[in-house]
Amino acid sequence: MGYVVAVVNGPNLGRLERREPEIYGGESWEAIWRRLTKVFAELELEYYQSNHEGAILDFVETLEDRGCKGLVINPGALTHQSYALRDCLKVLSIPVIEVHLSNVYAREAFRATSLTAPVATGQISGLGPLGYELAIRAILARGTGEKP
Ligand code: DQA
Predict the structure, then answer these.
(1) How far apart are CA 43 and CA 21, in angstroms?
(2) pLDDT one-digit tens code per residue, 45-91
(3) What span, in angstroms and rounded, lies between the C-alpha atoms of 7 and 23?
(4) Is 15 a pocket residue for ligand 1 (Cβ < 6 Å)?
(5) 69 lines ligand 1 (CB under 6 A)
(6) Residue 100 in contact with ligand 1 by CB distance below 6 A
(7) Active site includes 132?
(8) How confident is the model over 95-128, as pLDDT tens digits?
(9) What is the distance between the alpha carbons of residues 56 and 85, in angstroms, rounded to a whole number?
(10) How far is the CA of 47 from the centre of ligand 1 (A)?
(11) What is the CATH T-level fold of the domain 4-142, as seen in this structure?
């Protein structure tokens, strides 16, 4: 098995390109994913997207048992509202990088609170799709190290 890194997108992120392109950019997830899999061709990248909080929890729960070495997650609005996702991420021992396409600190006040960032290894916000690439690099840079 290769070096597995999971990339998870939460609610409404399946609609990139059509969803508020002035905020989230005009690129489709398919195009972003194509680039990521090319840039990290040596890795085994896994992708999961759901609009359902519980489905995301169910997926994240399986990661460590399946040998996954790191998680990049854009929880979408769950960032600001999901104690359940926070609890789920907290018990992971693999590095977790939270990514936001937009700068959540420069938008509505409710977006400036992340329930999940305090239990993540780090957060990248406002760099568009490049954030996913940098997050994967951060996981690789940590090697098999555990979350702080
Ligand atoms: C987002 C920011 C969140 O506030 C929002 O609910 C999203 C996308 C981002 O990528 O910028 O769905 O996570």
Answers:
(1) 29
(2) 999 999 999 999 999 999 999 999 999 999 999 999 999 999 999 99
(3) 21
(4) no
(5) no
(6) yes
(7) no
(8) 999 999 999 999 999 999 999 999 999 999 999 9
(9) 8
(10) 17
(11) Rossmann fold (3.40.50)
